[in-house]
Amino acid sequence: MEFNESVTKENLARTFAGLCQDGARYQFIAKTAVSEGYEYISDFLKNIAKNKMAHASVIYKLMLENIEKAVENINIEAGYPFENQLLDTSLRSSSEIEMNEGKNIFPHFAKIAHDEGFTNIEEILLLISDVNLTNSKKLEYLADKFDSDKIYNSDKPCQWLCSNCGHSENKRTAWDKCPLCGYPQGYVILPEESEE
User: Fold this and answer.
1) 7-35 vs 87-100: helix axis angle to the nearest 10?
2) Is 34 helix (H, G, I), strand (E, B) or coil?
3) 5-48 confidence digits (pLDDT tens)
4) How far apart are CA 174 and CA 190, in angstroms?
5) What's the DSSP call for residue 159?
6) Cα(91)–Cα(181) distance, rounded to whole angstroms?
7) Residue 80: phi, psi to the nearest 5?
8) What pLDDT is attached to residue 194?
């Protein structure tokens, strides 16, 4: 099948636009995290935003490699969520968006690419899907911590790590101010994150 006539071409255009929008949304949520004093969570969200833009770059290159003739515009129709940028609700809804993209949208686009004979594009879309599923789990973990008011508290002793200086302590609650460098609690790496 000719790429310019394929559904895969439109799906890649939709994927590119969605990834760019997701990257921007994570940047906005990261700013909210900083304003609420959660610098490490902001860094985590900025990393997801960076990943989204890396994925967008891969998709853009795939488009350029496969377009057989010049295309001025590819018109797409897609929905996009708009929500208040409260950190706790943004983490939960972002987890759900990542899960939907990773479980439904990208696998569906990959199947279409496969059926149209674009197996290299299928593989890329499935790899992006895997990243989305991992992001969903991490975001759900953070959302659960917010919901239970346990961002820096644990039911059992765990390893807390300062993202600035590397100081760590094994206890149930993270420090308010790092005893080594004096950075505030918002720089503490959450236990699940520090074990990766």
Assistant:
1) 160
2) helix
3) 899 999 999 999 999 999 999 999 999 999 999 999 999 999 99
4) 9
5) E
6) 29
7) -145, 130
8) 45
- Answer for the pair 29, 94: CB distance below 8 angstroms, yes or no: yes
Structure tokens at 141: 């973990």
Average pLDDT over residues 153-162: 91
Which range is most confident: 75-84, 114-123, 136-145? 114-123
Which two tokens mark 156? 């059992």
**Could you tell me if 161 and 187 are in contact, meaning their C-beta atoms sit under 8 angstroms apart?**
no
- Give SS3 for 154: strand
Say how many C-beta atoms besides its own lie within 10 A of residue 93's C-beta: 18
Work out the number of other CB atoms within 10 angstroms of the CB of residue 5. Answer: 10
Residue 117, by phi and psi: left (phi above 0), alpha (psi -120 to 50) or beta?
left
Q: Which residues contact 191 (CB under 8 A, 6 or more apart)?
A: 154, 158, 159, 160
Q: Which residues of 132-143 are buried (b: 16+ CB within 10 A; e: fewer)?
A: beebbebbbebb
44: its two tokens: 């985590």
Q: How confident is the model at residue 195 (pLDDT cuts 50, 70, 90)?
A: very low
Average pLDDT value over all residues in the chain: 91
Among residues 129, 75, 72, the alpha carbon closest in space to that of 103 is found at: 129
Residue whose C-alpha is closest to residue 159's, from 175, 174, 170: 170
- Amino acid identity, residue 106? F
List the structure tokens of 112.
């279409």
